[in-house]
Amino acid sequence: MAQWRCDVLRRFAKASWLGLACFVAGVSPRAHAQDSSSSVAQEVRIVILPTLTPTGEVPTDKALGRPELQNGLLWTKARELDNLLHDTAQDLGFVVDLSEPRTSDVIVSERELLARASRSVSWQLSPRLEFEGSDIVLRLLLVPPRGEHVLVRTETVSSEDFQVRAVVMFRDLVRGARPSYDDRGSGFEGDLRPMRPEQRRSEGRAVLVMHAAALGGFVGYSLQKSSGSDDARLTYPLMALGTGVGFGGALIIAEEWDVGLGDAWYMSAGAVWPVFGGMMLAKGRDVQPELDRYAWAVGSGLAGVSLASISLSFAGMGTGGAAVAHSGGFIGTGLGAGVEMAIRGKADVTPYEGLGYGALGGVAVGGIWGRWVQESPSRIMMVDVGAGLGALSFAAVGSPLLIGDSTEGRQRAWVLVTMSGAVAGGLAAFWMTAASEEKSADAPLTHPMAGVIGQSLRADGTYAPVMGVGWSGLW
Fold first, then answer.
1. Would you tell me how many other CB atoms lie within 10 Å of the CB of residue 295?
2. Mean pLDDT in residue range 405-428
3. What is the C-alpha R_g of the chain?
4. Domains plus CATH for the chain?
5. What are the tens digits of pLDDT across the range 155-189?
6. What is the largest CA-CA distance in the chain?
7. Tens digit of each residue's pLDDT (9 = 90 or more) over 76-132
8. Arithmetic mean of pLDDT, 48-67
C-alpha cells in the first residue's frame, strides 16, 4: 500500500510540474509567430489649426487673426495652405484630428499653443501667412504632445514655390521633433511612418510572471499536502522551489517571445478558475482522503492551462477576450452556486459542488466566447459589477422570504430572485456602457461666392482687388 501511494505521488508530482511548464510556455508558439510579424502601429494624431495672419516677421499694426474674404488673395492662399497641410500630414503618417472648429474665433498664440499641447495627446500645428511685396512670408509653429518648446520654421517664398516650400517646412519640423528619425534620403512621402510609437515588447510579462509564480507555489504546497506530511521543513522549501520555477520560467519566456497582455491574462484564466473549480468540486463530492483534493485542483489547473495553450497556439488573444474568460469564471461560479441551492432548496448550506461546476463551465464558455468578443476590458468589468450589484439588490429585496417559516420553497424562491437580479444587473450594465453614436452637424462642403476673389499687382507696387464670382469649398 505504501509503495502504491508512493507511485501515485510520484506520478502526481510529474503531472504538476508538467502543468506548471505548460502554463509558462503556453504563450510561446503564438507569441513566436506574432514576433515575426509587424506590430500594429498606434495612431499619431495632429491638430492643424486654421491659418492666421500676420506672421509677426514683418512690422505691422494688425492683430493676429484669420484672413477674411475681403482680403482677396491672402484669404485664397490661407485656404490653400490649410488644405495642403491636411494632405501632407496624412502623407507623413499622422491622423488629422478634425474635431477642432474651423471658425474665425480660433486665435491661438504661442503660449496658448504650448498649453494645448500640454493637456493633449495630439501634435499641435499653427500656420501663419502674410504678403511681403510679391513674396509670401510663411511661418509654421509645431508642438509635439506634452512638448515644452515651440518648434518654428519661417521662410519667405515666391508664389510659385509656395506649396512645395510649405510641404518641405512641415516635413523638416517633424523631423526636428523626432531626432531619432532615420533619413533614407528618398523624399518625405511615407518616410516618417517609423515615428509612430511601437507597441512595447512582452507587455504581459508582469502578469505572466505573477500567475506563474503563484501557480508554482501552489503546486509545491499541493505536493507537500498530498504526501500526508505536515513538516514545515518540507512545506516552505517546496513552495519556494515551485515559485522560483514559475517565476524564472516566465521571465525566460517573456524575454524570448513577445507575450501580449491579453495572452497572459487568458493563460491566468485557464489556471486560476480551474484550480478553484477543481478544489470546490472535490470538496463538494467529499473526496477522501481530504489530501487528494489538492490533486483535483492541480489536475483541473493542468487541463485548463492545456486548453488555453492550445487556443493561443492558433491565434493571440486581446485584453477584451481575456476579460471575458475571467468574467465567465466569475459569473459561472455565482450561477453554479445558485443552481445547486435552488435544486436543494437550502440557502444555508455552502454549495461547493455548484461552485466547482460553475467555475469550470463558466471559464470554458468564457474562453471560447472571448474569441469573438471585441469589447473593452472596462466594459466587461462593468458587466461583472452590474451582475454582482443586481444580485445583491434583489437578494435584499427578497430577504423577507427567509424570515419566519423558511421552507424549501421560500428558500428556493429567494435564490431564484437573487439569480434574476444578477442577470438583470449584468444586462443593465451592458446596455448602459454601450457606445453612443456621436451626432455631427451637417454643413455644406461647397458654397458660391461673389465679390473680391483675388488681387492683382499694379505697376507701382500696389494691389488692386479683382471682382468676380466663384465657387468655394472642399473637393
1. 22
2. 90
3. 33
4. 2-29+210-432 (no CATH), 45-195 (3.40.50.10070)
5. 988 888 888 899 989 988 888 776 533 443 333 34
6. 117
7. 888 888 889 988 888 888 888 776 554 445 567 778 888 888 877 888 888 988 888
8. 78
CB burial string 65-74: b at 16+ within 10 A, e below:
ebbeeebbbb
Residue written as cell 454549495?
A: 351
Please report, as a single letter, which amino acid is at residue 473.
G
Strand order in the sheet with 135-143: 95-96, 45-48, 123-132, 135-143, 151-157
For the chain, the average pLDDT equals: 78
How many angstroms separate the CA atoms of 24 and 250, rounded? 5
What percent of the chain has pLDDT above 70?
76
Cell triple for 80 = 490653400
Contact criterion met (CB below 8 Å) for 362 and 304: no
The predicted pLDDT at position 200 comes to: 59
pLDDT band at 365 (very low <50, low <70, confident <90, very high): very high
- C-beta separation of 267 from 208 below 8 A: yes
Q: Side chain identity at 379, as an amino acid letter?
A: R
Q: Quickly list DSSP for 44-83.
A: -EEEEPPPBB--SSS---PPSB---GGGTHHHHHHHHHHH
Dist CA 208 CA 212 (whole Å): 6
**Cβ atoms of 373 and 324 closer than 8 Å:** yes
Chain mean position to CA 56: 43
DSSP label at residue 434: S
